[in-house]
Amino acid sequence: MGNRNRDVDSPATNGGDGKYSYSKNSQYQKLATNVLSEKLDAAIMEKFDIASLSSPSRAIQLADLGCASGPNTFIAMQNIVEILQRKFKSQCPNSRSLPEFHVFFNDKISNDFNTLFVTLPSNKPYFAAGVPGSFHSRLFPNASLQFVYSSIALHWLSKVPEKVTDRNSAAWNKGRVHYTSAPGEVVEAYAEQFAKDMGEFLRTRAEEVVSGGMVVIIMPGIPHGMPHRRVPSGLMYDLMASSLMDMVNEGLLNEDEVDSFNLPLYAPSPEEMTMLVTENGDFTIEAMELTNPSPNTKGPINVRGWMVHVRAAMEGMLAKHFDKDRIDELFDRLVRKLSDECSQELESCYTEGIQLFLVLKRR
Fold first, then answer.
1. DSSP state of 22
2. Predicted confidence (pLDDT) per residue in 300-333, tens digit
3. Is the pLDDT of residue 35 over 90?
4. pLDDT per residue over 98-131, tens digit each?
5. What is the CA 274 to chain-centroid distance, rounded?
6. Does the keyword Lyase apply (predicted)?
7. Beta bridge partners of 60
8. CA dist 283 to 63, 108, 198, Å?
9. Of 205, 202, 59, 37, which Cα lies nearest the Cα of 125?
10. Residue 355, H or E segment
11. Cα 38 to chain centroid, rounded
12. CB 257 within 8 A of CB 277
């Protein structure tokens, strides 16, 4: 196991349609975005000038960045195109025809585009294309997009911060897998990496999006100054680390494997995002707020169902570092810890404002 590939910086959701596939285990992500449908509708109807951005000879071009393997991306794109059609009708009531729409589905090269396009709706109101590549780099020609959408994707960093795996650094994240409950140096290393990645995301989108074009981002967030362990995902990351260390103590893993593994994930505050957008200077903030991703969910969290969703999103990254039987063991332990030892702590976690909704317009 010591020679196993340690590159965990290119996560991909589980492809196919098996037990732990993302296509079958992304309902939580769907719920998180569905609660924002009215806010998205309002943002487009109030802020997006489709009349000036469309022409009979050119389709309105949209991109979903971090689309995964479906089906959530199809629901989102269908919804957005329908809102844009409605906005066009309100702006151009005398027009005899609607503009055409072209949707680009983007994700990492390792994404399961086969599953994505096999399940592409046949009656979709748009033309479709796949664009493989990282959204932390250029993907499209200059001024070619009118609308960009990214949901539950931008919290993935381009890589694990180098400092957290350096034994000689004050930010070495020994015995942990995330910045939750870590010293300030670790949190700062993650924040720096996110700032760098988000800066690159904004810079490249500024080149690709036309003036007046819109960028909508939905991603995990957190109120400024709130301890990360106060939110469910933060508690889960701590328990993932403690489960791995238990396995070290029982001789199932060696300590170096755990010390060298960190999750490339970061949830920013609105204040951080405001600063990064301001530093970029190419976009105006049209709307931003922290929301509850599951306001209609009552009662205790379905821990086992939640962990299946986590596994669907993270297993590809874990599999580059740990053997499959150790991954099975890890999630069994996580379910037990969250259900038994920490059930009350999980229920008391803050959920009201842990999802960031951000609408930007290109200057």
1. T
2. 778 988 888 888 888 888 888 899 899 999 999 9
3. no
4. 999 999 999 999 899 998 999 999 999 999 999 9
5. 18
6. no
7. 101
8. 17, 25, 13
9. 59
10. strand 355-362
11. 20
12. no
Mean pLDDT of the chain: 90
Give the C-alpha separation, 100 to 56, whole Å: 8
181 in Cβ contact with 91 (< 8 Å): no
Q: Beta-carbon neighbour count of residue 228 at 10 Å? A: 20
How far apart CA 148 and CA 103 sit, in angstroms, is 10
127-132 sheet: strands from edge to edge: 127-132, 101-107, 60-65, 145-151, 209-220, 355-362, 283-291
Tally Cβ neighbours within 10 Å of residue 206: 18
Extract the tokens encoding 225.
Answer: 């100054």
Structure tokens at 235: 């508690």
Q: What are phi and psi of 177, to 5 degrees?
A: -120, 0
For residue 178, give the H/E element and its range: none
Evaluate whether 248 touches 172 at the Cβ level (below 8 Å).
Answer: no
Q: What is the per-residue pLDDT for 263? A: 95
Please state, in angstroms and rounded to a whole number, the distance separating the CA atoms of residues 134 and 204.
11
Whole-number Å distance between alpha carbons of 284 and 76: 23
Residue 63 has pLDDT above 90, yes or no: yes
**In contact, 330 and 269? CB cutoff 8 Å:** no
The single-letter DSSP state of residue 68 is T
Structure tokens at 262: 């960190």
Q: Give the whole-angstrom CA distance, residue 268 versus residue 187.
A: 11
Strand spans (E) along 152-262 = 209-220
Average pLDDT over residues 240-262: 95
pTM as predicted:
0.93
Percent of the chain exceeding pLDDT 90 equals: 73
* Cβ atoms 47, 300 nearer than 8 A: no
Cβ neighbours, 10 Å, residue 324 = 10
- Euclidean distance between CA atoms 265 and 177, whole angstroms: 10
